[in-house]
Amino acid sequence: MEFRYLGNSGLKISEITYGNWLTHGSQVENDVATQCVRAALDEGISTFDTADVYANTKAETVLGEALKGERRESLEIFTKVYWPTGPGGKNDTGLSRKHVMESINGSLQRLQTDYVDLYQAHRFDTETPLEETMQAFADVVRQGKALYIGVSEWTADQIRQGVALSKELGFQLISSQPQYSMLWRVIEEEVVPTSRELGVSQIVWSPIAQGVLTGKYKPGQELPAGSRATDEKGGGAKMISRFMNDDTLARVQDLQPVADEVGLSMAQLAVAWVLQNDNVAAALVGASRPEQVSENVKAAGVTIPAELMAKIDDVLGDLPVTDPGKTAEGAPKQRVA
């Protein structure tokens, strides 16, 4: 395993970070989830990412149980706040001081820890003054409940405002967690340059494009049973639908020779590709089986030669989504209750 600094801080994290969105507490039985976490630890992964909204708090509970007994100082545990949790009352959502302060306490209890290494604003809250949110985060840090603060799916301007306020309030906003893959490159034009300037790293989710970049989905063929694309209940099918067209699937198949040339599986190539971006501190990978963790870890420390990076661009052509406006377009315009 390789380790990278997170933003302009002294915190090192594993460049393959284990995330439990769409798996723990919902798609995967608890004992299998624990096996996946143990596999991650065995492979040298020390960084674990979750959120209070995943499976409506159950994912945090499962992760806390799975990590019980591990030396806390050897782990980096991340979680997030914004989306509705619990019964979904009027203050059970957003980034108000009330919700932030109550949510961190709930997360710590479920994770069975005194602090998280990184506490992230899961989206930007248009209905709460940013000053109120950042003051709440400052207090969470001063109380020792979180060491650092991050954000997820914020625009470049929002990140700039957040970093400015964090400096005024005396804490560090060091990370951004956006979607990023060969097929979804909306952060490259604005978020990445702004983050580089401000000392913020990316922790990217869905580097394999919800499984599309594994190559298992073939154009014109039936969907594999039990795959993300068939998950109507858990929301996986909705998330992956943007990529499920024959043109995209056909071009992904054309990446196989590139993967072969560098000696990687298609999934490993996808993870290694995002890690070539020097502003990316970690790629988030999930798993429904322990062996998936072991396979994904093989992307750590890999350097894809420049000529193969160019070949990937040639194969995909104008297929990748690059419009930086997609970050704001996909953000909630008001709190979701």
TrEMBL record:
UniProt keyword annotations, A-Z: Ion channel, Ion transport, NADP, Oxidoreductase, Transport
GO biological process, one term: monoatomic ion transmembrane transport
Pfam family, one: Aldo_ket_red
GO cellular component, one term: cytosol
Family affiliation: Belongs to the shaker potassium channel beta subunit family.
Organism: Nocardioides scoriae
Family matches, as PANTHER family: HYPERKINETIC, ISOFORM M
Designated name of the protein: Voltage-dependent potassium channel beta subunit, animal
Example of a GO MF term: oxidoreductase activity
Residue intervals of the NADP-dependent oxidoreductase domain: 15-315
